[in-house]
Amino acid sequence: MLYLFVMYDVKKYHSRERKSYDKLFPDLSDSAVFRHEPSGGILFYAPLSLEEPLGLQEAFIVSLCDGCNSISAIKDQLKIKFGLTQEEADSKTYEILGKAINTGAIELMEVPKEERKRKFGDTLLQKSFPLSPPRNVIWYVTKKCNLHCQHCFLEGGTKALRELSEKEAKKLIDELGNLRILYLSMSGGEPFLREDLFELIDHAASYG
Fold first, then answer.
1. What is the pLDDT of residues 93-130, one digit of tens each?
2. pTM reported for the whole predicted model
3. Residue of 121, 14, 148 lying closest to 67 (CA atoms)
4. Domain boundary among 123, 147, 178
5. Is the Cβ–Cβ distance between 191 and 204 less than 8 Å?
6. Of 172, 169, 168, 180, whose CA–CA distance to 207 is shortest?
7. What pLDDT, on the 0 to 100 scale, is given for residue 200?
8. Are residues 12 and 114 in the same domain?
9. How far apart are the first and last CA of the chain?
């Protein structure tokens, strides 16, 4: 069973009500992307194009939202990892989950998932991030163009001698998806002259 509700004021509720909330299991929405950054991370919700920069503590919380960790377990791990008091751990967890739930980036479930989709929390703060991937990628999927606009900076016209095949293009999309690229713009040339354009769009959309 799926729950969606506001959690901003959970800390004001009766202790018995808070315990019932703490038993729920937050899970990152299929339309959301969490990406590690040196300063913490970024939570991106594609339907609204919302980016939420996260500090180390906030990123740690979101990294544990895999449908397997209860809110209570997340608070306990946050408390241990950062040496917080119980009150500080409660406040920080409710705050970040409340924002994410209200935007749709995180969903709450009554029962845990059988298998863990993500294990970010296990390695957070133990990995080195010398360079961050770009947020936005503009990809000229073909040089071929039938418009010949005078103002265009790209000399289009005929297809380039070596353009990616559909298989190669999908492999590139997989690499961009694994890097948690937030925005992918397909351009050209005239991208609609590429026969597999909609297959590439569908493949990119599968990453959220």
1. 999 999 999 889 999 999 898 755 444 444 444 455 56
2. 0.66
3. 121
4. 123
5. no
6. 180
7. 95
8. yes
9. 22
Does 29 lie in the same domain as 105? yes
The two tokens of residue 100 are: 């994410």
How far apart, in whole angstroms, are the C-alpha atoms of residue 91 and residue 123? 23
Its domain, for residue 70, covers 2-123
Structure tokens at 148: 């010949």
Mean pLDDT for all residues in the chain: 83
Neighbours of 124 (CB within 10 A): 18
The structural domain count of the chain equals 2
Positive or negative, the CA dihedral 4, 100, 208, 191 is positive
Residues 93 and 148 in one domain: no
- CA gap 40, 153 in Å, rounded: 38
Distance, CA of 201 to CA of 177 (rounded, Å): 13
Name the CA dihedral angle for 186, 190, 192, 194, rounded to a multiple of 10 degrees: -90
Structure tokens at 198: 């909609």
Each residue's pLDDT tens digit, 81-102: 999 999 999 999 999 999 999 8
